[in-house]
Amino acid sequence: MINADKHAAAALYVAQTGTREPVEEVYKLLSDPDIEFTMTPRQIRKYAQFMYDNGQIKHRPASWKDLFFDDVHDLPGS
What we know:
By secondary structure, this protein is mainly alpha-helical. 38% of the residues lie in helices and 0% in strands. The mean pLDDT is 94.
């Protein structure tokens, strides 16, 4: 939905969260070429390792798949 209409997604975000950010500011963030919206989990193991190293989680996951439901396990996550 975000990729299909970023302006509508920004407006929905502002309406649902009650943020004070203007829709146009949220739209700019959603339009940043360095940010990609996809169903594929990326860099999750690095983030989980960081959380484990800092004591935020007690068990280090062996795979990114340990953190997601089976319906995304066929995606090329990391």
